[in-house]
Amino acid sequence: MHRVSLKILKEIDRNPSRISELAEKLGKSQSWISTVVSKLEEKNLVEKNRKIKLAKTYEATLMRELLDSYNLEKILVGKKEGILKALLSGAKKPGDLESEGFAKSTVYNALNDLKSAGVLEDTRGGYRISDETLERFLEARKRSEEETPYKANGEKIIIIIDAGGEDGEPTAFSAFSRYGVDYYPNKTYLYRDGKDLEIEDVLIHAVLCAKNKKQMAMCGIFFLRHRNTLDIQKLWKKSEKWNCEKYLANLLAFIDQREVKNPDLFLPVEEFNSLASNYGVHLQEKHSKERLLTGLERIGDNLKNKVDAYLLGGVNLILRGLKDTTKDIDVVLENQKGFRDLVQALNGDNYEEKHEIEQSYKRLEPSAILEKQGSPRWDIFVEVVANCLHLSEEMKSRSEKHTEKNNLRLYLLSPTDIFLFKSVTDREGDLEDAALLARQEEIDWDILLDEIKRQDRLTGRYPSFATLDIIDILKERHNIDPPIRERLASYCLENALILHLEEEPKTIRGLREALDFPEHQIYNKLKKLEKEGRIEVDRAGKLNTYRAKPL
User: What keywords sit in the KW lines (predicted)?
Assistant: First the structure.
C-alpha cells in the first residue's frame, strides 16, 4: 500500500477531513490527494461526502482496528504487503518466498521488520502471520483484487487487476471511455461467453459491479451522457437477467430526483452535479408550485388567443397537492391551432425546441418539447399521446377547470385518466406517480377499465397491454393490487388471442408458447370466442387448429 494512502487513513480515522485539509496537512497537491482518495474509495476503505472518512465496510472496519494497534507504515508499505499476502497460504521459509519472486535482501529485511512489529512469528515450518485481524484484512484485500465473476445465462463478467493475457471484451467501467466518458478504473472489467455488447449492456454491467458512491455516480453520468440513445426497456430486461433491478431502480430514482431507497449508494446532489459538470451533464432542475404558476401566468400573457391545456403529469399532481416539485409540464391540446399558439407564446418567452430527446420520450411521440434554462420543460401533445391514447370526450368531461391564466385555460385531467396516461410510458418516474395515485385511492377502476376498452377501439394500438403490465409491476414492487386486475387480464388475453390468430392459425400449444398465460385460461377463452363467432376451429387433425374469422 502507498505510504500516502496510509497517512490519509490514519488522519481521517481521527478526524474526517476535506481534500484541501488533507493536502495541506500532508504537503501534497489537492489533485494528488484526490486521486489517492478515489483509489481508496474504490477499495472500499473510505467514503466521500462533504468530508473524507473511513467507510462502513468490512475492510475499513478491519483497517480501523489495525490503525489502533500498529504503525502501519512499518507493516504495509512497499513489498511488505506482498510478502504478507504470500504468507496467507501458510507458513513459509525465506527460501520459499525467494522462489516466489522476492529478492533475497527484500525478504530478510521485510521479515525482520514484520517480526519486530509483532505481526509475524517464526515457527518450525517458517514464518506465519500472528495477528488475526491483519490476516483477515489481507484476505479481504486479496479477494477484492482477484477475479470476481458474475454469471448469468452462460455469460460472465470478471474483475481483475491486470488484464494481461485475459480473454474478454472490456465492459462496465472499462468500456466507459469507448463511449466518450473518460473514466479509467484501477481494475479491468471483462465480458465473456455472450453476444456482442450493446451500450445498455455496458451500463448494466457497471451498475452490477459498482462498489462505492464514486462508481455509482459514474453510472449516473454515463446514463445522462447517453440518455437520448439508451433504451429503458432493454435496461430493465438486462437488469433482470443480471439480478440487479433494485440497483437500476435506485439509479433511475436518483437521476430523476425521486426518493432513493438506498441513499448510502449515492453522492449528495450538489457533489454529484460538481462531478457531472466535468462531463458536461447535470441533473435536471426541479420546480416548485409557486415557480410553475408564475411561469404559466407568463405564458398566458404571451398567448394571443385562448388555448385549453389539459395537464396530465407532475404539474397536475402538484396542483392536487400530491407532489411538491416537478421537472416538466406535460400538456395535451385539442388541435393544431392551439399547438401553434402555445409554441409561439413559449418562443416569445425564450423557450427553444429540443430536437434530441431520450428514447423513453421518443416513444411518447410528443408534438414538441421546449426548454429554457432555469425553467420547467414543456412536453406538448396534440390530441394523442404515444400514438395510442386519445384525449377523448369522456376524459375532457371528467377533467376539472383549475384556473385561467389570461389566455391559458388549465384543466386537470382526472386521477383515473392520469393513471392511464402514465401506464403507457417507459419512464420510471411515471411508475412511481402511478403508485402514488393508486395509494391515494382516487382512481375509479371501473371507469378506467371502460376507458381502456374505448382507447383500444379508437386507436387499434391496444394500450390495455401496457396498463396490465403496469398493474402487474405495481403488485410486484409496491404490493398494490387494483380490483380490475383479473378482468383486465381476461380482456387482454382475449385481444391477444385474436391478434395472434389473425396472423396465422395456431394450436393451443402454439398459443401457449406465444402467450404468458396458463393453458386452461387460453382454452376457456377460445371456447368463449368460438361461441361468439369470432374464431373458428379446425378439428380434423390430431390437434385442434384455431383461426380468426375475417371481419
Answer: DNA-binding, Transcription, Transcription regulation
pTM for the whole structure: 0.63
Query: Using one digit for the tens of pLDDT, what is the confidence trace for 97-142?
Result: 888 878 888 899 999 999 999 999 999 889 999 999 999 998 887 7
Position 354, amino acid: K
> How far apart, in Å, are the Cα atoms of 351 and each of 31, 336, 342, 447, 459?
39, 19, 11, 37, 32
From CA 370, how far away is CA 357, in angstroms rounded?
11
Domain housing 521: 486-548
3-state helix, strand, coil in the chain (%, to 5): 55, 15, 30
Residues 224, 315 share a domain: no
Q: What percent of the chain has pLDDT over 70?
A: 96
Position 545 scores a pLDDT of 93
Strands, E assignment, 184-304: 188-192, 287-288
Residues 363 and 491 in one domain: no
Q: Residue 10 — left, alpha, or beta (φ > 0 → left; ψ -120 to 50 → alpha)?
A: alpha
Note whether 63 and 155 are same-domain residues: no
Question: Residue 536: which CATH number?
Answer: 1.10.10.10
Report d(CA 17, CA 35) in Å as an integer.
Answer: 15
Residue 387 within a domain: yes
pLDDT band at 166 (very low <50, low <70, confident <90, very high): low
320 & 401 share domain? yes
Q: How many domains does the chain contain in total?
A: 4
CA distances (Å), origin 18, targets 23, 151, 215, 405? 9, 39, 20, 49
